[in-house]
C-alpha cells in the first residue's frame, strides 16, 4: 500500500512514509500559494464575499491558466470580440468560487497529512473526503504537467528521461500523483 490507496471499509487508506507525506504536503502548500489567499484575506464580510467579482482577464501563468481556463475559446480559437466578452464575464463571476474550491481541496489534504504529526503512517480517507482528494491530486497533476509542458503525445517520453535531466524529480512526482489518483479511484469503486 506504500504511496497508493487501497480500499479500507467504506473509505480508502494510504500508507505514506515520512518522505512521501512531506513531499505531498509541500506540493499542496505550494498549490495554496499558487491559488492565492481568499479575497480580503478571508476576513471580509460573508455577504460582501457573496457579491464579490473575480478577475476578468485570464492569468498569464500557464499553470494558473490550466487550473482556471477560459470558458469560451481559449488559445487557437477564432478571434471574436463577443466571445472574449463572454469569457471575461464568465471568469469574473466564477473564478473566485473555483479558487475557493481548489483552496478547500488542498487544505483538506494538508490537514489530513498534518494529522500524521510530521511522520509517516496510514492515512484513512472517508468517502466524504474523496472529492477533496481527487480535486487536490488532479490540480497538482495539472500544475506539474503545465510546468513540464506535458502533452498527450509526449507523456510516454516522461518514462525515458535520463537520470541527470533536471526535470526528473518533477516527473517522478507527476507520475506518482497520477498513480495515487488512479488508486484512489479504484479504491472508491472497489
What is the strand arrangement across the widest sheet? Answer: 1-2-3
The beta-strand count equals 3
Instruction: Tell me the major beta sheet.
Output: 3 strands, antiparallel
Estimate the strand proportion: 5-15%
CA-to-CA gap between the ends? Answer: 15 Å
Helix content: 40-55%
Global structural class: mainly alpha
Helix and strand element order: EEHHHHEHH
Number of helices: 6
Uncertain regions spanning at least 5 consecutive residues: none
Shape: globular
Average residue-wise pLDDT = 88
C-alpha Rg (nearest Å): 18 Å
Please write out the topology.
Layout: E1 5-8, E2 11-16, H1 18-35, H2 46-50, H3 62-67, H4 81-114, E3 121-125, H5 130-148, H6 168-189
Antiparallel strand pairs: 1-2, 2-3
Helix pairs in contact: 1-4, 4-5, 5-6
Please describe what this structure looks like.
With 190 residues, the chain is mainly alpha-helical. It is built from six helices and three strands, in the order E-E-H-H-H-H-E-H-H. Strands 1-2-3 form a three-stranded antiparallel beta sheet. A hairpin with a 2-residue loop joins strand 1 and strand 2 (11-16). Helix 1 (18-35) packs antiparallel against helix 4 and helix 5 runs antiparallel to helix 6 (168-189). The longest helix has 34 residues, at 81-114. The radius of gyration is 18 Å and the shape is globular. The protein starts with a strand and ends with a helix. The relative contact order is 0.18. The mean pLDDT is 88.
